[in-house]
């Protein structure tokens, strides 16, 4: 009986490891992009159980252990860039208030009523920019105190969990509100002026997740992420993409975004910086992001304490540099074609 259970669980975890290699947009495939670290832990546990519970390590048992080891190697290869042993895409620099900016991003969870926690956090961190998603009118009203701290704001409260609130100490020189894929899901494209007068572009998004009951496929999410990636690539100004992307840092779509945009992920070489799920420690992965163009160095990246939401807030400090030491990925012809097709599919869905 124990052997049968080990075989069933081993086969299942191996299948779920390689299932995301299928480039399907179905939610039940894409969702297994998320728990790579968790799958790695389960693999190691199963290998240990095979060795500990087997009276004799027969050829068949070695086959099962060997299959699990191959799967472990594959998962390790995928997770490696997001460990301290991976290569950094963005070099570390000292923070400079004149040529830098301090960003705080948080999915507050619409039904969360612990408004004071986010107010206290913002006051303690004192960021230049605050971007909050899943904000309805109740959240907008409860955070009115932030208007005393921030001279500039954009408020689009909605009751569909896709409302957003944006606050900035930096002047907003250009403002565009887009509905890139879905008429009910707003995003922002802004030009901000740093203290040294340099203009930068900020894209703030919150695409839909591929989950049953909301969106059976990742088509719209993938399209919105890639549309913003193409916009950033064409933009000569330094730029950031921020928000809850409802996609993990190591997914195929996020890597395609990095190639299309030629932006960099500050997590690489530093850690996973998991922001979701705040209330289930074993099921955590990085869903909230700040991506940077090659013009920036990284001064700080930190997951902040919980605010009563299912997401942890995340903060980043970035500084414009002249060295352009950032490592970026580039898309080949097939990947550019695939991105165009994904965007077309999303817009037509």
From TrEMBL:
SUPFAM superfamilies: DNase I-like (SSF56219). Keywords: Endonuclease, Hydrolase, Membrane, Nuclease, Transmembrane, Transmembrane helix. GO terms for molecular function: endonuclease activity. It comes from the Bacteria. The chain crosses the membrane at residues 6-25, 37-55, 61-80. Residues 106-311 form the Endonuclease/exonuclease/phosphatase domain. Pfam families: Exo_endo_phos. InterPro entries: Endo/exonu/phosph_ase_sf, Endo/exonuclease/phosphatase, GPI-anchor_lipid_remodeler. PANTHER family: CALCOFLUOR WHITE HYPERSENSITIVE PROTEIN PRECURSOR, ENDONUCLEASE_EXONUCLEASE_PHOSPHATASE DOMAIN-CONTAINING PROTEIN. This is Endonuclease/exonuclease/phosphatase family protein. It comes from Algoriphagus marincola.
